[in-house]
Amino acid sequence: MAVYFDHRIEAPDSSNVPSQLTWHSALPVLAVASSSPTTGGNVDLYLQQGEYVDSCHLERPHQPTVLRWHPMKPVLALGWENGEVVLLTHPSGDQTVLPSAHAAGITLLEWSNSGSRLVTGDQTGALAVWKVDARGRLHGNHLVKHEYNKPLTCCIFRPASPGDDVAMLARASVSGDESALDMFSWKGAPLKMGPQEGLAFYVSTADGKVHSVDELCKTSTLLSVEGAVKKLLYLEKREVLAVITETLMLSQYTLGPEGGAQEFMKVKLSSKTGQNVDIVWTANGLLITATGEQVIRLWDLDGDDNYVLSLNETLGFERGEMINCVAYCEAKEILAAGTSQGRIAMWKMVVQPGGVRGDTKAQWKLQTPTEIEGNVIQLQWGTSLNLLAANNSNTVRILCEHVMSAHFSQQVAAVQLTPTQLSITLFTTGVNLALQSDMHIKGVCATKDSVTVWSGKQVTVYELSGTVLRNTGSFPCDSHVVAVHGENLYTVEPNRVQIRTPQGTVKQLLTFSKAEGNPVLLSVCQSYLVVGTDTAHIRVFDLSRRDAKAHCSAKNLAEQIANLGALKSVKCNASGTQVSILISQVNGRPDHKVYFYDVEMDTVTHFDFFVGRPSSGISQPDESERQQFQGTELSGRCPVSHFWDESEPRLLVCETVPISSESSSTSFLETTDVSVVTLFCTQEHGLLLQDCYPKPSGLQALLALDVPYYYFSCKPGETDPAEISATTSATPQQTQPSTGWGPAQISHMVSRRALRDFVGLENCEKATRDAMLNFSFYLTIGDMDEAFKSIKLIKSKAVWENMARMCVKTRQLDVARVCLGNMGNARAAKALKEAEIEPEPEARVAMLAIQLGMLEDAEKLYKCCQRYDLLNYFYQASGQWQQALETAESHDRIHLRTTYYNYAKYLESMGDKTLAIAYYEKSDTHRVEVPRMLQDDTSSLEIYVNKMKDKNIYKWWAQYLESQSDMDSALRFYECAQDFLSLVRVHCYMGNIQKASEIANDTGDRAASYHLARHYEGHDDIKQAVHFYTRAQAYNNAIRLCKETGLDDQLMNLALLSNAEDMMEAACYYEEKGTHMDRAVALYHKAGYVSKALELAFATQEFSALQLIAEDLNEHSDPALLARCSDFFITHSQYDKAVELLVAAKKYHEALELCVTQSLTITEELAERMVVTDSKDLSEEARKELLERIADCCMRQGNYHLATKKYTQAGNKLKAMRALLKSGDTEKIVFFASVCRQKELFIMAANYLQSLDWRKNPEILKTIIGFYTKGRAPDLLAGFYEACAQVEIDDYQNYEKALDALTEAFKCLSKSKDSSTGQQEVRLADLQHRVTLIKKFVHARQLYTEDAAEAVRLCESLLEEPELDPAVRIGDAFGFLVEHHCQQGNFQEAYRKLEELQKLLPSQNVRYYISQDSLESLEKEMGVPMTRGDSRHSVKEEDEVEEDLTVS
To answer: Which of 165, 873, 1098, 1399 is deepest in the core (most CB within 10 A)?
Structure first.
């Protein structure tokens, strides 16, 4: 806990009442302005403790109006009411008066962020901007001056837009960030370094306007509000400008890149009218106001939330105390408020574990107030030391924070309460004393005989004599640390330690070399003094003799510890063999290690609380389990204090906090997540973790370790829970052990807690204490033999129980069994043995903890191993029902209903029946449990029954009423429950048979019908009995009655409704009786006895029944039966059915023969059934033969596709193709030939395709050529090409294509290997001759355009060839000549050639070979009608379609 020392400023006598004060932002210099209505005003500067600076006094006959420090340099800007502005330099006192720019009172002084600009403004609205150099000196006249014509009220500089962090970008580039690397290269955007400071600012006037002034000092109106502006705030994170007016109207504006402002929020702040308002602003968006009320108001502008903080009378505030002013310290996160009663209230921002710094009232914790008297009207935090200046109307006080001093030694504890008061506790006698000093106490050191206090300038020694403190010596001394041993005091000064008497006389000097540095840390334990210096050297001195002797040489820790900045704390153990050290790193942050210097071995080791592991040490047997269990408690922490036991040299205790809480010297005191860690430290085994447990709530900080207790300072104003438990608890728990002292005997400022190993043994003798320590040590290192040797002489059950408790922490179950045996605790031993079935070791240890009453440890262990079922059971057994329900609902849902049920039973036992009913309902057991619980309270039970409307509960209640002979009510509730059996039963009992029959008939309830049928049977009403047995589906009973009474007609129907056994029984009945044999056959068949049904049908000639039976026969039936039935159907000419039965009997040949003889169509389904794949039934050869026979039959029936399929399955693809050819399915023929890929099939398919109109379908033409090629039939292909050539000549007179086709035919025929006869040579010669003739004719036609005479000569010579036709048609040759002569105008010759052609071809129409134009010309010139020849053929002009022949 921290206290605040207040120093009154040493103001000169000439000073007036202080009116304003301001701290320099970095230096401990305070400026105070004083004013008087008559004599004017003055400004003075004061140092950290209020020391007056003579050289910096400034006095004027006018009143000072504004004070502003330069942000970096010790330069103060002063504004006066006459318009004068002065720059005052500290400490020289130099004064610089700004050139006259203002004629009215200064209202505005503001420095830019780095101090290069100064803005001044006055009452008339004149504003000037001045330039200041790096040393804080003025540069000539003002840069610019603006006139706004209204009083200026506020000014705020806009921070510069953040530039790119070059160092961060460089690190990112090196680590491989390409985007960061691009920013340094020509590829990326230019690097924005940003200006060093923002030179643009905003200034407000009394008429509500806010003006913007840019870097070039050009002004423009930004916005306007109603009323004078009281405060301007800039939210840098969101780039928002907040404006507060005199009427406390808050407006927020977003600032655009072009300079515009857009209002997005406006709200009226609450305040007390007619009061001065103090407004402060925090960087994280919190607006705090004090308006002379009993509360301060906070607005979170980021979170859009608001709340108030009020004073607490229990901490010393008075009722009705008003808050006048506020101030906020960003570094310490402390909010200070000055009150009307001269108190300064402080709220500390407290962050709970896992919480976030937010805006809730719960995170502000009010501290004990500091009293300075008067009426506090102004507060301000300042300097890098975070000092607080307070103006109480009469003077100014400077408050400096100081961590409260506390010390414990030799059973005496001293704790600082106020800057001048101590609380002294003597634990040996239980006496509490108060020590009031006349100086500010900065440190205290207590021993069994004395208490020494010091202020940094003076040391005072008080002697303890009974219950009296007597001042035995006081002397001036500048030492900031003091240690005491016996009658000697140890103080420090540069390069030496002084050993003094209580009166201050120096007895001895312990000198340090320049390299060893100046002593800054002192600590005494038993008779050893350890000294730490500012150069990180440590020395240990032996104080057991008259003079102090060096115990070891100086040790330079900087050589052993990397990154060492400075020593924070040094402590030595009772034997002087070990020194523990806490350090701060070079960057100023605390190190998360505790270092240990072994004096004898001259080595340095450490324990790292960040990872929870020491640097060295032996491996413990259960180390992995313990680390896993305690890892969350130790990792990520930092030590803040450490203490050795005063008598046990092996035992050290450290106080640790999470890493995030250690940065501030006082913040860890407010942290709730503090762990106290105990370590064993020895040369042989290194550092060993002995225990770790959280610091109890209500306690402030660890003071010392003195076995068997830890000693803590208590938080002021909070009750120590152990003080209450000491008087009320008979069996103290480990987390809150008994102190052994009553509340009236021990102060609440110091509390002690027993070590884990000494709970219940706090008052044991020294031998037992030493034995327990040895047992704990050997148990920690895993040496069971030595552990048991150390306690073998102990007979106390309490000691054995305490050791069993230790086994819970160390998880030594084998040791625990020995301890339980020595305790004689058979129940616990039995429970521990039964728990061995649990697979998790933590679950077994938890059972041990339960048996020892360590319920909190058991709970933690169950949670650690995630055995929520056992945790649920544990909560139930310990009566923690809410935790049990929460655990079941979130983690153990499989036992949720069981937990609800057990809780309901518990509530029932406690008499809370209403809540028990609710949980019985949740457990879904209310239908039974609630009636049972309420059976003695029938009225309540009836209300519950009517309320629930549950059928099961209705039934229970009806049964209860029936037992009470209330039949009418019972019937009514049975009806509500829809329990028709009970309704029928009661009606039968009451003789209402008709009503019972109606219920059974209407509802169809089987149970009700069965009960009624039994009733009718008992009364010999067989018809009704059979009816209701049938309704109840109790067919066997109905069949029994029908057989007994001869109801044969009903028997058949009932048997068919019943099962196979009843059908068989009824069929036997009919067969034995010899009547209704058709029924017997049908029942045998229905029951599944087909052979029996067939035999009976054949024997009795029941052909209709036989017909029905045959429909159910299949291949799984008896083949003999199938054959017999098929013969029966053949006899009766039902051949289709006979074929199906023959196939089912696997008599495929007979079935096929029957199909042939009777001309039955073979369907694909029937054909598939005839074909079997099982070689056991038919060989492969027989199967193929059968398939071919089926295919032959299909061919005869014209089913060519099915025939193709069967031929294919039989492997006879040739026949399959023939079948396909008969079907005429061109697509399937082509597909089949392509799939089979056989020569014969290709040829057959090609031959078939030639029969189609291949001339008009090019695809067929291509397929024919392809098939002949694949079928390797070049002679056939040649023939096809010849046919193509002839078609081209006859149909299209296209001799060019005909020539190509014949050429291909010649090529194909040349490839033919058929050379056994001379036919091939003859064909080749003939083809060659035809090709030659066609070539000549084609050549003549092509030559005609170039040389007509030669072309005519070639054509006439061609006509002289003996076998010209059919290679070249004669008509085409003559036609060529006729056309030529007509074109030449030689019509006589043309006509002669035409007549010659007609003679050669008398039976043909020669006009076919000559164009119509030529004929008309001849007719016109010759005058002869061209009508000779066969006129039956009309010549039509047709468009010729040329077809390309694809030849290969």
So the answer is: 873
Cβ count near 830 (within 10 Å): 12
The secondary structure of residue 1313, as a DSSP letter, is -
Whether the bond into 1366 is cis, omega within 30 of 0: yes
In terms of C-beta density within 10 A (0-12 exposed, 13-18 middle, 19 or more buried), how is residue 940 classed? Answer: middle
Q: Two tokens at 605?
A: 């080791």
Q: What is the pLDDT of residue 85?
A: 93
Measured in whole angstroms, the distance separating CA 1033 from the mean position of its chain's CA atoms is 59
**3 state DSSP class of 1345:** coil
Bridge partner residues of 538 (DSSP): 532, 555
Task: For residue 708, say if its preceding peptide bond is cis, omega within 30 degrees of 0.
Answer: yes
Residue 501 has pLDDT above 70, yes or no: yes
Please name the residue that has the structure tokens 């001849």: 1418
Sheet strands side by side (includes 699-706):
699-706, 709-714, 750-754
Give CA–CA dist 61/422, Å, rounded.
48
Q: Which of 579-593, 739-753, 1025-1039 has the lowest mean pLDDT?
A: 739-753
209-213 β-sheet, strand order = 152-157, 201-205, 209-213, 219-224
Strand partners, 531: 522, 539
Adjacent-strand bridge partners of 280: 288
Q: How far apart are CA 754 and CA 663, in angstroms?
A: 30
pLDDT digits (tens, 9 = 90+) for 1322-1359: 777 777 777 777 777 777 777 777 877 787 787 877 77
Residue given tokens 């204090």 in the structure block: 641
Per residue in 1162-1209, pLDDT (tens digit) is 666 566 556 654 445 566 666 666 666 676 677 766 666 666 766 766
Q: Please state, in angstroms and rounded to a whole number, the distance separating the CA atoms of residues 1071 and 1080.
A: 6
As given in the structure block, the two tokens for residue 1383 are 């074109």
C-alpha distances (whole Å) from 394 to each of 11, 49, 65 are 11, 18, 18
User: Cα dihedral sign for 288, 289, 292, 296?
Assistant: negative
Q: Do the bridges between strand 555-556 and strand 537-542 make them parallel or antiparallel, or are there none, so unpaired? A: antiparallel
Residue holding tokens 């010139």? 1421
> Cα 1159 to the chain's mean position, in Å?
78
Distances (CA, A) of 103 to 121, 126, 1141, 1166: 10, 9, 131, 125
Banded pLDDT at 826 (limits 50, 70, 90): confident
Alpha carbon distance 1203, 1196 (integer Å)? 9
Q: Give the number of C-alpha atoms closer than 13 A to the C-alpha of residue 1426, restricted to the C-beta side.
A: 25
Cα distances from 700 to residues 305, 436, 673, in angstroms, run 32, 22, 12
Q: Are 717 and 315 in contact (CB under 8 A)?
A: yes
Q: Which amino acid is at 839?
A: P
Tokens of 917: 């009913």
- CB-based burial of residue 1010 (10 Å sphere; 0-12 exposed, 13-18 middle, 19+ buried)? buried
Strands of the 488-493 sheet, one edge to the other: 482-485, 488-493, 496-500, 506-511
1066 vs 1054: CA distance, rounded Å: 9
pLDDT at residue 101, as a whole number:
85
Rounded alpha-carbon distances, angstroms, from residue 264 to 157, 240, 242, 253, 1291: 22, 10, 10, 6, 94
pLDDT in tens, 439-456: 888 899 999 989 999 988
* Angle formed by the axes of helices 841-851 and 813-823, nearest 10°: 20
- Kindly report the average pLDDT of the chain as a whole number: 79
Residue 1171 CB neighbour total at 10 angstroms: 15
Residue 660's contacts (CB-CB under 8 Å, 6 or more residues apart) are none
